[in-house]
Amino acid sequence: MARVFLLLAALSGFTGVALGAFAAHGLRSRLPEGMLSVFQTGVQYQLWHTAALIGVGLLLLRQPDSPLFKASGGLFVLGILLFSGSLYLMALAGWRVGMVTPMGGLCFLLGWVCFGVAALTVK
């Protein structure tokens, strides 16, 4: 599981940097300032949680049987897809996805709760 999370972090880090560069160089003149800010928020949260996913992967190398670290990593991945992904769709396509963005944010929050509890119980 550690390897999966580390590979997903590499993919997310790559796409996060690529999307950030795309926003800075390709979207600045094409999107209204408000929508550019929405897109950049998606990039920001993606990259923060990519770093968290790296941490989870590294911790799972030392604690491979930790269900809470595994849950934390899964929730971070799901949060990136739902939260950041929905912001990208909103900014680029004007697609309002209802409760998808808040559900992604909830995944992030639950991921941090799992991470914290796992940290308290680690041996």
UniProtKB/TrEMBL annotation:
Pfam families: DUF423. It is a multi-pass membrane protein. The chain crosses the membrane at residues 44-61, 73-97, 103-122. Belongs to the UPF0382 family. Keywords: Membrane, Transmembrane, Transmembrane helix. It is found in: Membrane. This is DUF423 domain-containing protein. The keyword Plastid does not apply. InterPro entries: DUF423. The keyword Zinc does not apply.
